[in-house]
Design brief:
Blueprint: H1 15-38, E1 41-46, E2 51-54, H2 56-62, E3 68-69, H3 71-75, H4 85-94, E4 101-109, E5 113-126, E6 132-141, H5 143-170
Antiparallel strand pairs: 1-2, 1-6, 2-3, 4-5, 5-6
Length: 171
C-alpha cells in the first residue's frame, strides 16, 4: 500500500521577522530621504580590505558609477594642492592620533571639474592590536561656501586698499 500513513512537519511564526524587515525597510528609506534632502553622502570603509560602500549621494558627489570603491580611486582625483596633506591626515586618524577625520579638500570631479568637498568620519571598529577595521562618515559639497569665502576675502582686501588710499590722501 503506497498511501501515506503519517505526515511530519513544523510551523514557524514569521510575523516577528516580517515586522522587523518592515521596520528596517522604513528606517533605510528615512535615512536615504534625509541624505538626499540634505545632499549628504554617507560612506562605510573597511581599510584592511580597502573596500568601501557609499550611498547614491556618495556616488553623485564623487562621480562614481559603482557603490563600491577603493581609497586609491578617490585619492587619485584629489586636486594636486591637496594630494599630499589629505592622505597624511587620514593616516593620522587611522593610526589613532585623532578622534575624528575632518577635512576639506579640492576634488577633480569627472564631470563638474574642480569642486570642494567636506568629509567627516571616524574609525568605529579596531582589532585587538588597534588596527582600524571600519570607518564611517559623511561628505558634502562645499564649493558654494568656498566661493563665497573667496569673494568675501577679495572684498575685504579691496576695502583695506581703499582705507589705505583714503588715509594717504588725508595725510
Amino acid at each position: 500500500d503506497k498511501n501515506p500513513v503519517r505526515m511530519l512537519g513544523t510551523h514557524t511564526d514569521i510575523n516577528k521577522m516580517k515586522e522587523t524587515e518592515q521596520k528596517l525597510l522604513e528606517t533605510t528609506e528615512r535615512f536615504e530621504l534625509a541624505s538626499t534632502a540634505t545632499g549628504t553622502a554617507i560612506y562605510e570603509w573597511y581599510p584592511e580590505e580597502d573596500s568601501s560602500y557609499g550611498n547614491q549621494q556618495w556616488n553623485n558627489l564623487f562621480g562614481f558609477e559603482d557603490h563600491y570603491n577603493t581609497k586609491s580611486t578617490w585619492l587619485s582625483r584629489l586636486h594636486h594642492k591637496d594630494a599630499e596633506h589629505i592622505p597624511k591626515i587620514l593616516e593620522s586618524h587611522l593610526n589613532g592620533e585623532t578622534e575624528t577625520y575632518d577635512v576639506e579638500f579640492r576634488y577633480n570631479h569627472p564631470i563638474k571639474e574642480v569642486i570642494w568637498i567636506k568629509v567627516k568620519g571616524k574609525v568605529t571598529q579596531r582589532d585587538e592590536e588597534g588596527k582600524p577595521l571600519k570607518m564611517v562618515g559623511v561628505a558634502y559639497d562645499i564649493t558654494e561656501k568656498k566661493e563665497l569665502e573667496e569673494q568675501l576675502k577679495n572684498h575685504a582686501h579691496h576695502l583695506e586698499e581703499l582705507v589705505k588710499e583714503r588715509t594717504k590722501k588725508l595725510e
